[in-house]
Amino acid sequence: MTHEVLPSVTARSSTAEAIYQALREAITNGALAPAARLREQHLSRHFGVSTTPVREALLRLSRDGLVEIYQNRGAVVASLDRQGIADLYEIREVLEERAVRRAALAPTQDFSTIDQLLAEMAPSLNDADQITFNRLDVDLHRQINLLSGNVALADLAEQIQRRIQVVRARCAIQLAGRPAVSHAQHLALLQAIRECEPDQAAALLREHIRSVRDAVLHVFTETAPDDAAASR
Fold it and tell me: Each residue of 133-148: pLDDT tens digit?
C-alpha cells in the first residue's frame, strides 16, 4: 500500500480519532482501493504514533464496514460485489425514506445548514473526480435525515452511504453529469419537505436513490469485474 495518499496528522491530533478520519476519507474518496492492505506498522510510522491508536482506528472502520480484518492477512479495505452494492442501496432507501417522511411532518425545520451545503456543492457539480461533491453529498443527506429528529437513523444512513461511496468514487469518471442530476433531485426533495408533503418527499427520495443505484451498478458491472470477483 502506498501512503502518499494519506494525510499526515499533527502531534496534537495524533489520536485514534484523527487516524480514523484520515483513513475513512482516503477509503471513501477512492484514494485507497478495495482490497488494499492496511498494515499497522506501516501506518503507525506514517502517522508517527504507536500501533495502539492505529489498531483502534482500524477496528472502528471495521465496525463501519469499510475495513475487513483477517487473522492472517491483517486489515484490508473492504470490497463489494454487485449484489452487495444493491443490498446497501436497498437499506439506504428504507432508512432515508423513513427519514424524509418524518422530516416533512416535523413541526419545525431548520434548513440553514442544508442551504449552506447546497451552495458549497454548486461549484463542484462538473468536477471530473467528484471527490468534493461526494463528500458534501454525504453531509447533505445526513442533514436532510437529521430533519427527521432521529439522530440514530441519520447515523446509520450515513454509515451505509459511506460504504457506497467507496464504489461510487471508483466509478466517478464514468458517472460524468451525475452530480448535476443529483443536485436537481436534491432540490426537488427538499421542496417537498419544506411544503410538508411526506408522500411526495418519499417518492422523490426513492427516485433519487434508485437512479443513482442504477447508474453506479451499470458502471460497476462494465468496469469493475475484478473487484466483484475479489469480494467473493
Answer: 999 999 999 999 999 9
